[in-house]
Amino acid sequence: MEQHCVRRGSRRRRVFGRAAGRWRVVVRVLLGVALVVVLVLGLVWVFQRRLIYLPDAGPVPAAASVLPGGEDVRLRTADGLELGAWYVRPRDREPSATVLVAGGNGGNRAGRAPLAAKLAEAGLAVLLLDYRGYGGNPGDPSEAGLALDVRAAHRFLVGERQVRPERLLYFGESLGCAVVTELATAYPPAGLLLRSPFTDLAAVGAEVYPYLPVRLLLRDRFPVEEQVARVRVPTAVVLGGADSIVPPSQSRAVAAAASARLVEIPGAGHNDPVLLDGPELIEAVRALVPR
């Protein structure tokens, strides 16, 4: 009997030992997974702006070599940066209005030259802004930095070029929609054109990175829908019906918040030429020019 009890106790110890071993393996695996998750989230936190801002940082050609009558200008930000930009006026006539163009998160002002040329042909003066870190400009982009950059552009137009606010339009492309909308809350323009706006950066980020807690991680917010609801100026929203980067539903939500005129181009993707400088886009800008 005593030997039987000893054998039974020994079996129990072996069973418990195997179970404990399995639990130790499970705990190690869970700790390893948790460590990997923390590491990935930490890397995303540190390097997230490299995922958001995709500048072409190389030098750009002289404005006049790309835009007939184009002028290279310098903008001075409140934190001491000097930014390159392009300014162009319509040929042989006074501009009916001036358009401050804030681009999206990629490229530089050279890629927006066709837009500036079409707007100038339509009788508008244009300032193509490049943010810090874009187009050979110094600095690193961030939400706060871009707000300083667009204010430098505004000061240049209103101060140095004597553009009256009632003859000044803001044009935002994708990320640039957030930049000019924030500016409009402080310095209302005569009109606001938003091309492919998102509701806020976290919402569009969640579409691109659905497996990450984007809203918890983001340092730059760009709350377009929230801010545009406070702007009381004529506004137009232009979007592509087949936009795979900014969901059309988000652009429609921004239009609703702004009580804006909505121009939807069926079948157009985010970077299709019709949304870069197409006739519907140019006409939407012209329709905002005060009579």
UniProtKB/TrEMBL annotation:
> Could you state a single Gene Ontology molecular function term?
hydrolase activity
Residue ranges of the TM segments: 21-47
**Keywords of this entry:** Hydrolase, Membrane, Transmembrane, Transmembrane helix
The Serine aminopeptidase S33 domain sits at: 94-202
Origin: domain of life: Bacteria
Protein name in UniProt: Alpha/beta hydrolase
Question: Which Pfam family, any one, appears in the UniProt record?
Answer: Hydrolase_4
Which InterPro entries does this entry report, sorted A to Z? AB_hydrolase_fold (IPR029058), Hydrolase_4 (IPR022742)
